[in-house]
Each structure stands twice: as C-alpha cells, then as structure tokens.
Amino acid sequence: MEFFFITLLNSLSYGLLLFMLSSGLTLIFSMMGVLNFAHASFYMLGAYFAYQTGLVFGFWPALFLAPILVGVVGALTERYGLRKVHKFGHVAELLFTFGLAYVIEEVVHLIWGRAPVDYRIPESLNFTLFTLFNTQYPAYRAFMMLVSVGMLISLFLVLTKTRIGMIVQASLTHPDMVQALGHNVPRVFMLVFAGGCALAGLAGVLGGNLFITEPGMAFAVGSIVFVVVVLGGMGSLVGAFIASLLIGAIQTFSVALDLSFLDLTAALGVVIDPDSKWYGGLSITISQTAPVLPYLLMVLMLIVRPRGLMGTRES
C-alpha cells in the first residue's frame, strides 16, 4: 500500500507537469496549426530564466517573471520568425522551429555553460508535507500539483467563458470575419503563441529545480511531450490532460517495478529453461523497458486510433 500510494502521488505530480508543458504545445497547434518543435526549448528557457532572476529577486518573483520573459521571447519569435515563413507552408514552419531549438540550446551554452546550474527548491517549500506509512512526501511536489491544477482551471475558463477566448477560437475558424469585426488576427495569433510558450516556461520554473537544469533538459522531455500530444489527440486539451496522467503513471510505476516476465511465469508455476533462446528476453525487467513504453503506446495508438484519444477526424 505504501508503494502504491507514494508512486501514485509521484505519477500525478509528474503527469501534471507534463500536462503543463504539453498544454502550451496543444494550444499553439489547435489555434494556429503550428507544430512547434522548439517548444521544449522554451521549457528550458523557463528554468534558466527562473534560476537567473531567482539569484536577484528570489524564487517567488521568479515564478511570475520567468514565464513572462519566456512569453516575450515567444511573441518575438512569432512576430519576426514564424509570421515571415508562414506563407511558405507548414514545412517551412517545422524547419524554422526545428532550427530554433538548436539556436536556443547554443545560446544557453554561451550564457550559462554546459554544466548544470545550481537551481534549487526554495527553502520555504523544502519540507515534508505529510508522512504516509514510513515515507515522507515533499511539499514542493504538492505545490507543483496545485499550480498545475490552477493553470488547468484558469486555461479552461479563459478559453470558454471570456471574450478573449471567444475571439481566439473564432480567429481559428473564421479569421476573415474576425478581422472584419475590427480585431487584429495576427496579433491574436502572436498572443496565443506567446501564451503557449509562457506555459512551457512555467513548467520549466517548477520542474527545473525538482529535476535538473542543464542544456540537455529540452531534449530529455521534448520527445515525451510529442508522445502526449499524439496520444491525446492533436489539438485537444482534454486529450492532452488524460494522456499526460496516463504517461506519468506508466513511467513512474514501470520505473519502480523491478519485475521480469520470468517472475510472472514463476508465479504461474511455469519454469523456463535457462538454455532456452527466449530466456534472455524474458529476463528483462519492467524498469528496463520503462523508457520505451510511452513510445510503444504511441505506436499502438497510431495503429488502432490515429486521431488519438480525444482527437477529431479531419475531413
């Protein structure tokens, strides 16, 4: 019971962090049709900006300043980069964001170096929230979950209950009509892209000190984010939320399970001959296969339901 509940809480915190990161990518794709390959790089910028501003102002001001700074970088990227290549089609946009990811990584190398920086959990949140059985659960993970849930509710309310949300959604389907009503559609798209990048920056602020802040952190989570988006359905925030929790549970539980198929067959009373050609493959533990399980799930989803869990079929 101790293993199950603690691992479940860890999977929830990791899954909600993945959703915070993938929601920005989903928002940008659903509103603009741009698949941003540099999205994880904005996550990395959020962590580095929080580290740098935290040295001057502390963690709490950095929690608000860093996502805003990342959003400003995103707005400039859309205004002077993506908007210029948009007329050349989606391939040009993909190539632009792909190259941008390498540019951001090299800029990080130039400014902060190649070694990890000392970005730590703030002392005000570095304590035990509660003890479950014999395991102490850190308050910072609970704080991450609280911020993630608050972001989810705020994003839902903004998109569905406010005038800004209606303008954003209308700009996606009827841009000419929105333009005729006096709204600046390119500016709306710029703000959407900036907002998506700011969400990635917020995930970097919260995840950078829990894990590690170093130049390879974008590559480490970038592929998982795309797995979440594909699994949940391209452009679906609800699908991204479900997929994030699912991927978080799969990775967290599989890493903690040091069991193999040989253990399963032994429990069923079946003994495998050590000289059998299948013995080596059956001895692989679940924890060893944990890194590839999300990708196997994505491949299975693409075979069975290509549009994802909550995606819609394109006409």
Can you give a write-up of this model?
The protein has 315 residues and is mostly helical. The chain has a two-stranded antiparallel sheet with strand order 1-2. It is built from 14 helices and two strands, in the order ααααββαααααααααα. The protein has a domain at 2-220.
Helix content: over 70%
Q: Report the C-alpha radius of gyration, rounded.
A: 21 Å
Walk across the major sheet and give the strand order.
1-2
Our measurement of the CA-to-CA distance between the termini, rounded to an integer number of angstroms, reads 48 Å
Average pLDDT number: 84
Percent range for β-strand residues? under 5%
Contiguous low-pLDDT stretches (5 residues minimum) are none
Q: What is the β-strand count? A: 2
What order do the helices and strands follow? HHHHEEHHHHHHHHHH
Shape: globular
Structural class: mainly alpha
Biggest sheet layout: 2 strands, antiparallel
